């Protein structure tokens, strides 16, 4: 097992590579304000972060990653375009798997701004591909923006679309919602009983019988939720044809050119994805310009749906096929929407990624390099 000093030496090598590529080195405090992360991810973040409290600063979290604080820094003072690199510890709780480390080093590269998102995506991916090339890793790519565009093109209500978008990064919940909205799964018995009671008594009578308010939700919040359930129950299901198109899209796992051709066929019946496909095609051209053989590059339409929720476009990862037990050696993607949230309405294009230097070191030693 490598010592921390050896891992730090490997991290410095990777950090130097990104500095030499033109990135400015930056750092972020290990203790981060919890309110920002909670606003972004809700209470779910507590399951994977270490939380503490400070009498003067309030609730704090040990840094779960660098992207959020680097985005905050850039949106407050950075100019576009800008390239940053960083190196340091991140902390993740591992309640389900005690064998996985709860503290490890990340080295990252982030690109903000630029006039051509496809070129920026290709630049970042090509840098990671170059620095990791001695390891012979498999690269996987995807596009969360494509799935979001497909949801936006469904013939259903804005609330149902919002619910599907909200759970894109929770595949099981997404599938359950899609099956229910598409009429392929029965309405849960508890909901049936509640809807029957609302129809028989009315919302006001049910609330009156519920007694005093308890918890964080007000009576008005509960009433609004009940009305939403009634309205949703009256909506027709998403058409079987549209559900099948979405299923077809989510099942795509091919080389990039074949995936693009397949998706173009789907776009004939789901035209809302056409702009995202144009961006995908431009990205493949830009990747070729960076020396990447896109004919051998994998594209998985569902890729990136179990990682951090801020990715909303191009996503990528690098894996050791001989070590399926390892997490991704590197991963990253585009997160334009995050800059809008942290920039208080001002947004800039942004894409980046991170590398796990301890995995690079382990694979280098296994390969005798």
TrEMBL record:
Keywords: Glycosyltransferase, Transferase. InterPro entries: aa-tRNA-synth_II, aa-tRNA-synth_II/BPL/LPL, HisRS-like_core, HisRS/HisZ. Residues 17-357 form the Aminoacyl-transfer RNA synthetases class-II family profile domain. The keyword Glycosyltransferase applies. L-histidine binds at residues 65-67, 92, 106, 110, 305, 310-311. One of its GO terms (cellular component) is cytoplasm. GO terms for molecular function: glycosyltransferase activity; histidine-tRNA ligase activity. SUPFAM superfamilies: Class II aaRS and biotin synthetases. It comes from the Bacteria. Pfam families: tRNA-synt_His (PF13393). GO terms for biological process: histidyl-tRNA aminoacylation. PANTHER family: HISTIDINE--TRNA LIGASE, MITOCHONDRIAL-RELATED, HISTIDYL-TRNA SYNTHETASE. Homodimer. This is Histidine--tRNA ligase.
């Amino acid at each position: 097992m490598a010592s921390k000093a050896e891992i730090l030496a490997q991290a410095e090598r990777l950090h130097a590579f990104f500095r030499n590529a033109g990135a400015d080195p930056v750092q972020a405090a290990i203790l981060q304000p919890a309110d920002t992360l909670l606003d972004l991810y809700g209470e779910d973040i507590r399951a994977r972060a270490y939380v503490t409290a400070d009498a003067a600063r309030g609730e704090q979290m040990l840094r779960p990653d660098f992207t959020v604080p680097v985005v905050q820094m850039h949106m407050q003072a950075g100019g576009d375009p800008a390239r940053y690199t960083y190196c340091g510890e991140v902390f993740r709780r591992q309640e389900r798997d005690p064998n996985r480390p709860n503290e490890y080093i990340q080295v990252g590269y982030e690109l903000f701004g630029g006039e051509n998102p496809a070129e920026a995506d290709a630049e970042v991916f090509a840098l990671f591909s170059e620095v990791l090339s001695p390891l012979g890793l498999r690269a996987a790519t995807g596009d969360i923006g494509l799935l979001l565009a497909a949801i936006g093109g469904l013939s259903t209500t804005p609330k149902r679309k919002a619910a599907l978008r909200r759970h894109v990064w929770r595949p099981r919940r997404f599938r359950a919602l899609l099956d229910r909205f598409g009429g392929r799964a029965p309405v849960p018995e508890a909901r049936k009983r509640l809807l029957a009671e609302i129809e028989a008594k009315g919302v006001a009578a049910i609330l009156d019988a519920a007694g005093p308010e308890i918890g964080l939700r007000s009576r008005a919040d509960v009433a609004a939720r009940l009305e939403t359930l009634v309205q949703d129950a009256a909506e027709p299901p998403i058409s079987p044809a549209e559900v099948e198109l979405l299923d077809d899209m989510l099942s795509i796992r091919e080389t990039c050119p074949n995936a693009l051709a397949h998706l173009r066929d789907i776009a004939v019946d789901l035209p809302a994805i056409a702009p995202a496909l144009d961006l995908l095609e431009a990205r493949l051209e830009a990747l070729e310009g960076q020396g990447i053989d896109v004919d051998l590059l994998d594209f998985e339409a569902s890729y990136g749906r179990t990682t951090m929720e801020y990715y909303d476009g191009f996503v990528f990862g690098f894996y050791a096929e001989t070590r399926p037990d390892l997490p991704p050696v590197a991963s990253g993607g585009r997160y334009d929407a995050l800059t809008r949230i942290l920039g208080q309405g001002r947004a800039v294009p942004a894409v980046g990624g991170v590398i796990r230097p301890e995995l690079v070191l382990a694979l280098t030693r296994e390969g005798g390099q």
